[in-house]
Amino acid sequence: MTFSELGLKPELLRAVADKGYETPSPIQAQAIPAVLAGRDVLAGAQTGTGKTASFVLPILQRLGAGEGQRTGAPRALVLAPTRELAAQVADSAKAYAKYLPVRTYCVFGGVSINPQVAALRAGCDVLVATPGRLLDLAQQRWVDLSRVEILVLDEADRMLDMGFIADIRRVIKLLPERRQNLLFSATYSDDIRALAERLLRDPQSIQVAPRNAPIELVEQRAYRVPKEHKRHLLVHLIRDGSWSQVLVFTRTKHGANRLTQQLEAAQVPAAAIHGNKSQNARVRALDMFKRGQITALVATEVAARGLDIKELPYVVNYELPNVPEDYVHRIGRTGRAGSPGVAVSLVSPDEQEYLRDIEKLLKRSIPALQAPVFTVPEPQAGAAGERAPQSQARPQGRGNGAHQRPAGGGAPREGHGHRRHSGQERRGGAPRWQRGR
Ligand code: AMP
Fold it and tell me: Where in the chain is the domain with CATH 3.40.50.300?
């Protein structure tokens, strides 16, 4: 199967070829013809399956062919749960529309509304939006939704989880009755089914396998390491492996901030991405990471959901998630589109149980190996707060060589106060998302 066999026009085929895609993914092979034929679609597909192109490409084609006039009002509307996902969908749409006279714009909350108002006034064909900001704009009549021909609910399950159902209903009321509807969801709850029933007319149902294949491509490693040595091991892994791009997961926002500072102090360029960061800071961090300006992006689970970072070579679970499904989400970010990835978990003694739960879910074992020999920096006289390496401050199971010269030599620039913070994180780490077992 090729993209041209799907009936896409030359301008789109060129854009797809520019992206380097050779064959359509399963969701694309099924959804593209259905959307081109004008059908409503109910698709079960997660991030990473190529779902974005599966609706964006045929939408762009339909807009080109449609008899709808270009009034400047959006003709296709994509609702997405988060700013990050909205921005990524809009970026994809712009890339695929490269050779077409189609304008895409993206609106989301948490940033000033004024530039968005100005851009909408200039007109756009495809509007990607988070529901809240879109409603604000619509209520103030900055955007006219009466010309929308195609509506997409992307990651509908997450939108419902995030409490957007009322907003979605309000948006739908502003749309013309006659339109094409596409609903994408990774999971099917009763609420999703109810929404689909109300929204979709004779939909074509498409279900693509959850991302088993990519996860099989991921090389999974776990290292036993005492909690207080994790950061040194991480620095060692990054340096020793010459990693240039690694997504690191922590459990808490504090933990993400602290680790980012520690990495920077060890001369590993890093940035944190989590819910307490401003929208601008998050976009900037993601952008720097994608451009290779920082080596490590330190993220919390929630902030990282839906991030599309292409062909990510390394994911590190700095702390194991206590919900095993989160592990699958996390490591599913590497090894995309056929490129192999490595997922490394740093497992402290109190996290062994989480590892066992993950193994049960995956139905395979991830043996926790001894960590490679790594350096615990020497304390610097008078350096604020760097703890002296104690005799046990070397990787488990190694009787020699653990204390090498500190690579990079930087002592983390944090004080005792921060250290107490780390105690908090430990407490917060275990029971916060405890599953009701
Ligand atoms: P998505 O599921 O839409 O988030 O897409 C996941 C990733 O796969 C994105 O980085 C896309 O650029 C990439 N991708 C989408 N379609 C294809 C394809 N047919 N071949 C290779 N990569 C693709």
Answer: 3-207, 218-373
- Residue whose CA lies nearest to ligand 1 atom number 14: 50
Residue, of 162 and 217, whose pLDDT is higher? 162
Cα separation of 70 and 76, whole Å? 12
From the CA of 366, how far away is ligand 1's center (Å)?
A: 28
What's the mean pLDDT when you consider all of the chain? 81
- Report the atom number in ligand 1 closest to the C-alpha of 22: 20
CB 24 less than 6 A from any atom of ligand 1:
yes
**Does domain 3-207 fall into CATH 3.40.50.300?**
yes
pLDDT digits (tens, 9 = 90+) for 406-428: 333 333 332 332 222 222 222 22
- CATH no., domain 218-373: 3.40.50.300
In this structure, the number of other CB atoms found within 10 A of the CB of residue 348 comes to 18
Ligand 1 centroid to 76 CA: how many Å?
21
- Side-chain-side CA neighbours of residue 96 (13 Å): 27
Mutate to test the pocket of ligand 1, among 2, 25, 208 (most ligand atoms within 8 A of CB): 25
Beta bridge partners of 346: 223
Per residue in 347-368, pLDDT (tens digit) is 999 999 999 999 888 878 887 8
CB of 333 sitting under 6 A from ligand 1: no
Task: Tell whether ligand 1 has an atom less than 6 A from the beta carbon of residue 88.
Answer: no
Of all protein residues, the one whose alpha carbon is nearest to atom 11 of ligand 1 is 50
* CA torsion angle 295 298 301 307 (round to 10): -40
Q: Which atom from ligand 1 is nearest to the alpha carbon of 88?
A: 4
pTM reported for the whole predicted model? 0.58
Task: Give residue-wise pLDDT tens across range 184-205.
Answer: 998 777 888 899 999 999 999 9
Classify 251 in phi/psi space as left (phi over 0), alpha (psi -120 to 50) or beta. alpha
Alpha-carbon torsion angle 91, 95, 99, 103, nearest 10: 0
